[in-house]
Design brief:
alpha/beta, globular, Uracil-DNA Glycosylase, subunit E
Length: 196
């Protein structure tokens, strides 16, 4: 079975198994999407309106901005994998509740363990706080965090501001673009430390 097929199988399993209460109000689940061989996995917060309609993560305005930023470091969507902490859209795009995050977390762990990325990039405080509850995004953004977790194999994490927040805040936009430009160097550093 190819990794693409394994990923499809994993999502089908979780469509049935996930007990998140957001299932009741969302149109459909929005699983992660992208390259199952990716070296980088981006983790956002939760699907928005467009994602809920089309069933794909990061396809609205924030997704377009993300694509633009990937372009600045000569990357394309096809090279990466992108997912969210919560797989169903919260009503009116409210923040996901701790219980909703908890109900979707094993799905996320399964995705990460199948892909085994070298680097996990958090898009915004919600995805970061799931792994680093004591960190503040305003202090941690653009800095490589290294930590071993029992549930996942990846040890390298990079928190960034969420593209949606940066869309409406010029200063944050500049910071996010500057932080994005660090990604290739960080990836190179990780590869040199753990050659495989």
């Amino acid at each position: 079975m190819s990794k693409v097929q394994e990923l499809e199988k994993l999502h089908k399993k979780w469509f049935k198994k996930c007990q998140c209460a957001l299932k009741e109000t969302a149109t459909r689940p929005v699983p992660g999407y992208g390259n199952p061989e990716a070296q980088i996995v981006f983790i956002g917060e939760a699907p928005g309106k467009q994602e809920d309609i089309q069933g794909r993560p990061f396809i609205g305005a924030a997704g377009k901005f993300l694509d633009e930023m990937l372009g600045t470091i000569k990357m394309k969507r096809e090279y990466i994998y992108i997912t969210n902490i919560v797989k169903y859209r919260p009503p009116n795009n409210r923040d996901p509740l701790p219980k909703e995050k908890e109900d979707c977390i094993d799905w996320l762990y399964d995705e990460l363990n199948l892909i085994k990325p070298k680097l996990i990039i958090f898009l915004g405080r919600h995805s970061m706080s799931n792994f680093f509850p004591d960190q503040k995004i305003s202090e941690a953004h653009g800095k490589l965090l290294i930590k071993k977790f029992k549930n996942i194999k990846t040890e390298n994490f990079l928190p960034l501001y969420h593209p949606a927040a940066a869309l409406y805040n010029g200063g944050m936009r500049k910071t996010l673009i500057a932080d994005f430009k660090k990604i290739p160097k960080i990836l190179e550093k990780i590869k040199n430390k753990n050659p495989q």
